[in-house]
Amino acid sequence: MITDAHVPLTQHQPRSKTYEQMLERVRYEGTYPTRERAEEVVHEVLAGLGRQLTGDERVDLARCLPLEAARVLTAQVPDTRPLTGKDFIHDLATRSGASLATTRWDTGAVLATVAAHAGTGLTSRILHQLPTGWALLFGQAELTPTA
Predict the structure, then answer these.
(1) Alpha helices of 3-99 — where are they, by DSSP H?
(2) pTM for the whole thing?
(3) Which has fewest Cβ within 10 Å: 2, 46, 98, 145?
(4) Nearest to 108 by CA among 131, 128, 92, 121
């Protein structure tokens, strides 16, 4: 439960311990040289995910994340056209100016950490809501039904 929802996040507020732990995990997963770089990547990817995720899954994911991360996710207005995993990477690469390979790496580092916060049940619900190609971004196998 978010208890300080009425307190605006400013650069002067200390970050929560759980957010620091999240950044440290992303830094480790992505082998980033600094925590600041990990935070940039977290902001880019969570903002992108916030433009794709809607409904209960969006709300439930925000509840699982540290407050600072939840604010990045929920500050975005969802797009009217959901993107496949591949298109999501292209969109983030275009917005950030990074290469597709770097964007894929960054996305994997962040979404693996997001999946750890969300747990398997919520991650599965999120993946069922999103178009194809997202499971690998979350570090999971893409399972397709057989005919």
Answers:
(1) 17-30, 35-50, 55-64, 67-74, 85-96
(2) 0.86
(3) 145
(4) 92
